[in-house]
Amino acid sequence: MSSETSDPTGTAAPDGPLRVGLIGYGLAGSVFHAPLIAATDGLRLDTVSTSDPERQAQARAEHPQVRTVDTPQAVLDRAADLDLIVLASPNKTHVPLATAALEAGLPVVVDKPLAATAAEAEKLAALAEERGLLLSVFQNRRWDNDFRTVRRLIEDGTLGDVQRFESRFERWRPQPKGGWRESGDPAELGGLLYDLGSHLVDQALTLFGPVVSVYAESDIRRPGAEADDDTFLALTHASGVRSHLWVSATTAMLGPRFRVLGSRAGYVKHGLDPQEAALREGLRPGTEGTEWGVEPESCRGRLGAGSSPRTGGGEPVPTLPGDYPAYYAAIARALREGGRPPVTATEAAAALRVLEAAKLSATEGRTVRIEARP
């Protein structure tokens, strides 16, 4: 890292924006990371790595000041001129590239999943701690509008003691799209369990803490598909809460995004947070005249007891705005001031233990216990 903006511990000095190298400019890099980095005060997108000439041209068109290079190594070769590396590359590259970046003295943000196993994640966390460098995982769904609303209803006691938490990422995509995300090669970490499942498990752990047992059903439903496209997880938390999680590309009729049942009331919410759609459409946080992360009143979830929201039961609950920009704002703050990043590698390892247990459960048709960590 440049001595002008950073010290060896990875805590940046307050002069000038922090320069960011982004590896990967596919969906994750172009739709999520690059726009959010560019919209964050104190961060500057400096270098983008992609071997695809069309994506290089896209990156330069969307971020005229950016430098484009062909390989991840070309980004790492500029370590002295960068303050942060962001990995939006295919899943199988996360561990080797994060290791290389940390060994080059650079803080790292990694798109989920951090690794294939909890052991790999813990090894990366140990390396980052040894080098005194930030290592964080991009779990942007913690800042979804609906999740933020659920979290508030739990924390303020509106629901009472939560007994069951239902969460779904369901889609209707009867034809596989192909690509590494749907590959059956275990090295690619394809399939919905490690993709959308990473988000749902992270959200459940964030709300209710450690998991002690996992039961899962995982199927490949679509002709020609190679990786799981219809998966269910039942988690039992140490707190006693049960989380039921669905990820599917084969759901002809979509269920509620959340159904949270407590001792006082329940909350049901349909639809998806609007931020991904806005980013895909080219909208950006901070754009004049744009209320970022705000959904129409008609999309509000409903809160009640003893009735169905589909027949008018319960009361509509204003949904808190979604806030993806909060993630990179917290990263910038952690780099400048030190302290804990918004999502830690240790938290990612805890989620990976659940995902590993789910994979084993689905394969062997049994409930898998997770031993308590010291």
Features:
374 residues, alpha/beta, nine-stranded mixed beta sheet, six-stranded parallel beta sheet, 15 strands, globular, disordered N terminus
Kindly, what is the distance between the CA atoms of the first and last residues, rounded to a whole number of angstroms? Answer: 35 Å
Gyration radius from CA atoms, angstroms? 21 Å
Strands of the largest sheet, in order across it?
Answer: 14-13-12-11-7-10-9-8-15
Q: Which oligomerization state do the chains in this entry correspond to?
A: single chain
Shape: globular
The counted number of beta strands is 15
Work out the helix count. 10
User: How is the biggest beta sheet arranged?
Assistant: 9 strands, mixed
Helix content: 25-40%
Q: Approximately what portion of the residues adopt beta-strand conformation?
A: 15-25%
Sketch the topology as an H/E string, one letter per element: EHEHEHEHEHEHEHEEEEEHEEHHE
Structural class: alpha/beta
How confident is the prediction overall: mean pLDDT? 93
Layout of strands and helices, then pairs:
Layout (H helix, E strand, L loop, with lengths): L17 E6 L3 H12 L4 E7 L3 H10 L4 E3 L2 H5 L7 E4 L6 H10 L4 E4 L6 H14 L3 E4 L6 H11 L6 E9 L25 H13 L2 E9 L10 E8 L4 E7 L9 E5 L3 E4 L5 H6 L20 E4 L10 E3 L7 H13 L7 H20 L3 E2 L5
Helix pairs in contact: 4-5, 5-10, 7-10
